[in-house]
Amino acid sequence: MGARFALAGGRQGWIRTVLTAVGVGLGVAVLLLAASVPHVLQQRDARGDARSGGVSEEEVKRSSTSVLMGSAFTTFHGRDIEGHTLQAEGKHPKLPPGVEVLPGPGEMVVSPALGKLLDQDGSRELAHRLDGRVVGTIGDEGLLGPGELAVYLGSDQLRPGENAQRFDRFGVPSDKEPLGPALLLIVVVACVVLVLPVAVFIGTAVRFGSERRDQRLAALRLVGADAAMTHRMVAGESLVGAGLGLLLGGGFFLLGRSLVGHIRVFDLSVFPSDVTPAPLIAALIVVGVPVLAVGVAQSAMRALAVEPLGVLREAVPRPRRLWWRLLPPACGLLLLLPLSGRLADAPLTGRFAVSKTQISAGVVLLLSGVALLLPWLVERLVGRLRGGLPSWQLAVRRLQLSSGSATRAVSGITIAVAGAVALQMLFSAADPAAAGERGEREKPAAEAESHGWRDAQLRGAPTQHQVGTLVDALRRTEGVRDAVGFLEVSLSLKSDPAQMASAAVADCATLRRLARIGSCRDGDVFLPPPQDGDEADEDVVTPKPGTRFTLRESGKGAPEWTVPASAREVRATPRAAAESSAGVLATPGAIDADALELPWLNGWVRMDKGRPEVTERVRSAVFRVDPGFSIADPADPEDEVLSKAVDTYDSVRRGIFAGATAVLLLIGASMIVSMLEQLRERRRQLAVLVAFGTRRATLGASVLWQTAVPVLLGLGLAAVFGWGLGWVLLRIIGEPMAGWTSFVPIAGVGAGVIAVVTLASLPALWRLMRPDGLRTE
Amino acid sequence: MTAAALLTAEGLRKSYGATAALDGADFSIAAGEIVAVMGPSGSGKSTLLHCLAGIVPPDAGTVRYRGREVSAMSDAQRSALRRADFGFVFQFGQLVPELTCLENAALPVRLAGASRKEAEGRAREWLRRLEVDDVRHHRPGQVSGGQGQRVAIARALAPSPRVVFADEPTGALDSLNGERVLELLTEAARESRAAVVLVTHEARVAAYSDREVVVRDGRARDLAGAS
Amino acid sequence: MSISHTLLGLLETGPRHGYDLKQTFDQKFGHDRPLHYGQVYSTMSRLLKNGLVEVEGIEPGGGPERKRYAITDAGITDVAQWLARPEKPEPYLQNTLYTKVVLALLTGRDAGELLDTQRSEHLRLMRELTRRKTEGDLADQLICDHALFHLEADLRWLETAAARLDRLAEAVRA
């Protein structure tokens, strides 16, 4: 009967069912997408592992199948390009996944996205950098996502152990680095924070249009249905809505999945085929949503007596009680507080030594407190409001009479915001830790900036010849004011190999850039005294004339080198002091360049930061000398491990912000629906108010207040709970309280939702304000 | 009569879709006059009222209020006119359910820009005259239909309008209550020299007027000359 | 109600014999009280005397009276005046009003205007009664209310009649 009602209840019933189904469908789609995240990550990791060069215990021997692979990572306008150089050592080289033909020297294989990028007009500099002949396309199995920029360059310049590694197979066993505890905590909280509001949203969607339905129920009671029957009918009706919602949700999900391949967020893209929900969670959704729907519908009937002659709401609703609303958050707090300090050690890299269930349950309970306390708070605060402008008075009085429906939708926002605030605080606390390590590196960059220059550091595994080529190439590059490059090498103390010093090897002209050396001839050696921070390092020795070093780390008979007696002590230039900690400056004639083991490239480039594209031109120049060279632009520091951690944090943070925004928009949509419903019900009153000459602005403002008051109260409560949750979570990872203002951006989004809901209601309001409403039917 | 006319209309035409609600209606009312607009339902009475009050712009014809052409005003100007010079009483659904009776009655005065205190003072005065001062803190849902209608009349009269438009003001009331409400309305209007346009299909309601106009098939017929 | 005006009005639709007049009158207006022949002839002679009708001819054949009456111009004016003059509002007016409406329809006059005029007259009286009621004591109020309710019933009938004029016109002319 209820089911028939839902489907054949005339136009009104039909609209109501569709609204519910669409609302539930949106919620279900979001849940399914969320449930797919683990699979997406797993597939990405699996493909990432599969294309890594296989590492074995023993050294890989040169064979007919072995290949050399080197790094050719580069960046173009902020987008990372995953590049590798490949060089076959035999006739049947192993190939990385997705690559069918090994590119020869001057050839390359690119991912579809990179191919497209190269064809674009604005990519001339990149095409200049990656100028190989494209001989193939990397297949999906060799890419993390459809939008990934990747390239394999053919080469004949690779030297195993220096700028390349030898492999005879691809693919490493999955040794996924577990997320750091702080990050895992964040992910757990994020899931709770994003899923709870969606559940609230579904609960709201199930109640769409229930007022009209209640009137129909009353009509049914008049023709003889009893109270139990009406309850069954409501259950049936909500089941149909939820069922249709599930179907629609599946549809939305498939639609979103097919679209996902075209979207690139935070430089990440996902293959649609990877978006598969975890079966257990999917089953939980399929069962849970209808159960939730029926539960919500039944509980909504509680405060309602459907009598034959009409629907009676409790005339004077009981004032809401406070005490039981405080229980869940208190329990949550009790679950979380004992964990204080448990993850205090190494929040970024340590092990997650705490029950995930306990944390999740604690977070859920604490956050649910927001949703429970909000109705009470709104009722209490709004009940005290008085007076004000007519628009304010209309809105406040409306809220006083029915604060429940107003707060229901908002509670979803509130949970999302409270969670987002807590998360932002976690980030703010974790970020300075990372930033601290970054700080030293950024200093010279800051100085350089102030002079109108931008510096970039050079890195790589070069030969002496390459350094010269590189510096020449850089100096010829438009927009480069200065380029200095030199080899650096590590020296072990002969008497104690654990004691090291590093030496810079370069011609006199270059050495003059590194220190005030005075006269210089090939064969000279200079000794800059140790710099401030280096003295503290026990493992660094200060070379003196006569100090004996070995040039290779291991093996007897390693070539030795003694600091000549003629070595003079000199003062390093500030720039060199910032970039290099070399204790020895040697001309090529003073040290056997061929004997140097694993030298590295050091140096810097000064660019005119006002010139457009100068960074890209410099990158190209460096890349063309050797793709393995990299250039670190201090404007975006690329210290590998650290910057990866920072990147992950940034992308998770942005992801959470995007998720919270999406949830807020979803809830905004449901608020629009209920606002429109409410306006429709009041069309006659609106028409009368218009007859009185009420300004549009007054009624518009009233709608604005009506949305804004609960949302603002909700945001305030959310900030308090967010701070509370953030405080508890920070205690767990042993960080001090930080990020008090972290609610600002998400509160901004909340304010945006208020604006959107109001704006979206206005056309309907204007339409309803036409005097047609005065006409009696 | 035209010399003293406060509000006049000539040749009003108004269609809703294909149906013509007004088809060349004329009307005029003098200051302090109470004119009943009669006619069967669907004849266009309410549309005539809406056009006269500047709620709905007519498709053709002119409405003049104190020499100004209402039908040529902008929506905002007409709203301002309604706030300042007109009052309205309808059959039902007119009080804002969330506001108390006092706040409802004070609303138009506040909309016209008066302070809350002043508006509620004036509203209180009218509630007293209409014998509903005792329910001023109740909400409309908590008072009887007759009391609600009196509150509505107090609301219409509180801004001291020059014209009160009443559309079936007693339609939802029993005859005794209806008559009392009408007595109060007409009495109050006469005292404050407000003109009343009283739309009704009931002769006994129309009997409270000075003159009646019959609307039939979208044409208004002034019967003053016949009596 | 005025029988002379009614018969006169019937004559306006065309000359008739006295017998014809009685038949038509009975059929259209005299449902429960048929007209006596004597009434017809005495009325006709009075109208003849006043110059409102004339004898158009006498048919040959039996019967004492075979006169064929026709309305004069003065008679038409008299009918018009009668129709335009509202009746004094009083209870049980519908016979007269119905007769007037039917005659107006039969003679091609505006029956709607007739009804409006009558309504205006009713309202005038109702207004007076209402004023007396609001100023008078309880007894006055009750008396006035009685009259008001009756007048209102009449007026409602007028409304209904006015709304059905088209259909009535068809029936009457049939």
From TrEMBL, chain A:
Q: Which residue ranges run through the membrane?
A: 14-35, 182-206, 239-260, 280-301, 322-339, 359-378, 655-674, 711-730, 742-766
Please list the residue ranges annotated as the ABC3 transporter permease C-terminal domain: 190-297, 660-770
Q: Does the keyword Magnesium apply?
A: no
State the superkingdom: Bacteria
Annotated coiled-coil positions are none
Which GO CC annotations does the UniProt entry carry? plasma membrane
Cell compartment(s), UniProt: Cell membrane
Q: List the membrane topology term(s).
A: Multi-pass membrane protein
Q: Metal-binding among the record's keywords?
A: no
Q: Which controlled-vocabulary keywords does the entry list?
A: Cell membrane, Membrane, Transmembrane, Transmembrane helix
Q: Which stretches are tagged as biased composition: Basic and acidic residues?
A: 437-456
Instruction: Extract the ranges annotated as region (Disordered).
Output: 43-62, 434-456, 526-561
- Signal peptide span: none
What is the designated name of this protein?
ABC transporter permease
Lineage, top ranks: Bacteria, Bacillati, Actinomycetota, Actinomycetes, Kitasatosporales
Automatic annotation (TrEMBL), chain B:
Domain of life, per the record?
A: Bacteria
Which GO cellular component term is one of those annotated?
Answer: plasma membrane
> One GO molecular function term?
ATP binding
Membrane-crossing residue ranges in chain numbering: none
Looking up Gene3D superfamilies in the UniProt record yields:
P-loop containing nucleotide triphosphate hydrolases
| Sorted UniProt keywords | ATP-binding, Nucleotide-binding, Transport
Read off the PANTHER family from this record.
Answer: ABC TRANSPORTER RELATED, IMPORT ATP-BINDING PROTEIN
Kindly provide the name given to this protein in its UniProt entry: ABC transporter ATP-binding protein
Q: Which organism is it from?
A: Streptomyces boncukensis
- Read off the lineage from the record: Bacteria, Bacillati, Actinomycetota, Actinomycetes, Kitasatosporales
Automatic annotation (TrEMBL), chain C:
Q: Which residues form the Transcription regulator PadR N-terminal domain?
A: 7-77
Annotated transmembrane regions: none
Q: Which PANTHER family match?
A: NEGATIVE TRANSCRIPTION REGULATOR PADR (PTHR43252:SF6), TRANSCRIPTIONAL REGULATOR YQJI (PTHR43252)
- What name goes with this protein? PadR family transcriptional regulator
What organism is the protein native to? Streptomyces boncukensis
